[in-house]
Write the structure tokens for this entry.
Amino acid sequence: MPERTFLEPGVIVGEWWRRMDDGRVRCDLCPRGCALREGQRGFCFVRQARNGGIALTSYGRASGFCIDPIEKKPLYHFYPGTAVLSFGTAGCNLGCRFCQNWDISKARSLDRLSAWASPAAVADAAVAAGCRSVAFTYNDPVIFAEYAIDCAEAARARGLRAVAVSAGYISPAAREAFFASMDAANIDLKAFDEDFYRKICLAELAPVLDTLRYIRHQTTVWLEVTNLLIPGHNDAPEQVARLCAWFVENLGPDVPLHFSAFHPAYRMLDVPPTPAATLIRAREQALAAGLRYVYTGNIRNPAGEATSCVTCGALLIERDWYRLGRWTLDRQGRCKQCGAALPGRFEPQPGRWGRRYAPVEIHG
């Protein structure tokens, strides 16, 4: 684990920055490249120009810890049925008008964050709770990359896995170190449309696509992708078709894709929830386009939650709101009926965590 230089409790000297000729400091963590004068904070709020460099001001401070089913991330092919210790901090480097966790991702104060929790304390708590992994989620772990990396390495040292739930808005300069510390990632592909990213997320699509290709082809990280379908904004059949065509060509047919239902939140309270029929139609489009593992989320749809063998059609993993039912994989993660391997990371037996949610307090 790297040695961190603390400027004060919860504030460390950050990585990925450079000084500019005009005296400002440029943050190179994400594609925004915020150019800051002393004391100014970046778009994400938690990275600040200090002492001639960039400081991370949320190190070791979380907005809350809880134990979730791994399927909630969502990760359906990564140690199914197991528990994951999940947490986030504050701030975000996107400005999504529909943010489901806006109370922490849009926070402009660190006062609501919990007491100090060291990477070692996080890993120890996960082990004590019987978790299989630790997830960095709720807000984007890219902006607290140093803390996420240190927690991931502490978790791995205790035999756990590390999971990033991210929008994938990270620079080439930072992504190698970040994803080298992760075992799995769910990347939120907001839409397959540049205008949507610029107007609704205050970001750009191209860097996210670069991140997806990087993870898929240049790392060993297990990858799954989520697309939140918002009525009237990114749910049109032609947009779903473009997304699926790019997906098959660039990521291949075996990367799981989750279509998730929108619920009114933050600055899009006037938009109705996503009808189940929209998700089902999108899933059918994706399967027809050649994707093999396509799921629906935030609605109850057992057919859209189940994993089937693409070779013989046998039901391999039955799910109902994160609870596993029938399991017909052998100890090597292959279909018991035909022997075809299921892409993913599996243990000889599924976990039994179910749908439980358990808040956890960590100090130290």
Q: What stands out?
A: The domain at 64-304+339-358 is CATH 3.20.20.70 (TIM Barrel). The chain has two domains: 6-56, 64-304+339-358. Residues 88 and 138 are 5 Å apart (CA to CA).
